[in-house]
Design brief:
five-stranded antiparallel β-sheet; binds flavin-adenine dinucleotide; four-stranded mixed β-sheet; 301 residues; 7 helices; 26% helix; alpha+beta; D-Amino Acid Oxidase, Chain A, domain 2; FAD/NAD(P)-binding domain
Length: 301
């Protein structure tokens, strides 16, 4: 993905800023007993996955992130941020140049399984396909049911963000994450510099009642402020303003981290289900596409 981005996007659309997973100074008093084992777990996991990182102490942390108050952590220099709209537009331009047609504003409302393929009803039109790839995100369980495979259930877990305002543009330079346990429903409330100079703090993690519930019972600002002050004690309430929320498609009510499901659920005619492609689904999208393409190519011979 990084190679693709560097080759196809303009320099304004990405930054190789790196990622810091830190233990805050405040943890020395409150939380070290939890956070240190979590960090050790992440170090072990990173090593087993061949991720290159370095362990840094308080001085090393401040060389990377001058305003942070941290005891140390791990720094992963290869992590980048990218403008998700630009990368998606680049993918779609490339797909169109290879003959792919997009039908936007065509909600799939029915799927008929034929012997030799599928008839899909969408936006009042009817489409005929030899195979079907279901990558409908939060609604992938419902689309799968329409295609006759009804074993999936998606639980919507909302993640809310706040934006950091009123501080110098480079107040936070890298992605700054807390250490979280392997059972955490998300990656923890972290700092996310984004292209265009905004810094976001989030996301929270909460199971919501419906897949389009972006607003009910939002977390109070104090939750984000506490998470922000853990690393940057100078941040005040007035430095945080509410930003957007997104909803993760999770496979369980308790929000446990699970792997993506990429499953050929019918051989003839082929139905490939992509279920619970939550974060890091965008970063993994090229690998997912290659993997899914290989499965389909085999199924179509
Ligand atoms: C809060 C949050 C933070 C995230 N942060 C990161 C991150 O830092 N890095 C990262 O890699 N990933 C991140 N992600 C995850 C990333 O956004 C997803 O993994 C990715 O968008 C999944 O892509 P997808 O195509 O499977 O699903 P989606 O992007 O959800 O796309 C599904 C599409 O299907 C369409 N659709 C649904 N039902 C129908 C229907 N019946 N008919 C027609 N169309 C339909 C939807 O409109 C949508 O366009 C984050 C997600 C959230 C919510």
């Amino acid at each position: 993905m990084r190679d693709y981005v560097e080759k196809n996007l303009s320099k304004e659309d990405y930054s190789n800023c790196g990622m810091l997973i830190a233990i805050s100074r405040r943890d020395l008093v409150d939380n070290l007993v939890h956070d240190l084992p979590d960090l050790i777990h992440m170090i072990r996991r990173g090593r087993s996955q061949g991720i290159s990182f370095r362990i840094v102490g308080p001085v090393g942390v401040n060389r990377i992130e001058p305003n942070i108050k941290a005891l140390g952590g791990i720094f992963i220099p290869e992590v980048s941020i990218v403008n998700p709209v630009s990368v998606t537009e680049s993918f779609s331009r490339e797909a169109m140049s290879r003959g792919v047609q997009f039908f936007l504003d065509h909600q799939v409302t029915g799927i008929n399984v034929r012997k030799d393929g599928y008839t899909v009803l969408a936006g009042g039109d009817e489409f005929s396909f030899r195979c079907l790839v279901n990558s409908a995100g939060l609604y992938s369980d419902e689309v799968s049911s329409m295609a006759g495979i009804s074993g999936y259930k998606i639980y919507p877990w909302r993640g809310e963000y706040y934006e950091l305002v009123g501080l110098p543009d480079d107040y936070v330079k890298t992605l700054v994450y807390p250490a979280v346990s392997k059972n955490s429903p998300g990656k923890g409330i972290h700092f996310r510099p984004s292209m265009g100079g905004k810094v976001l703090i989030g996301p929270s993690a909460k199971l919501v009642k419906s897949k389009d519930d972006y607003n009910c019972d939002r977390f109070p600002k104090e939750v984000f402020l506490r998470a922000a002050q853990k690393f940057f004690p100078c941040i005040e309430g007035e430095n945080l303003v509410p930003a957007y929320a997104g909803i993760r498609p999770k496979l369980s009510e308790n929000g446990l981290e699970e792997d993506f499901i990429i499953s050929l659920d019918r051989n003839q005619p082929p139905l490939l289900n992509l279920i619970a492609i939550e974060s890091p689904g965008l970063s993994s999208s090229m690998a997912i596409a290659e993997y899914a393409g290989n499965i389909l190519a085999e199924a179509m011979v």
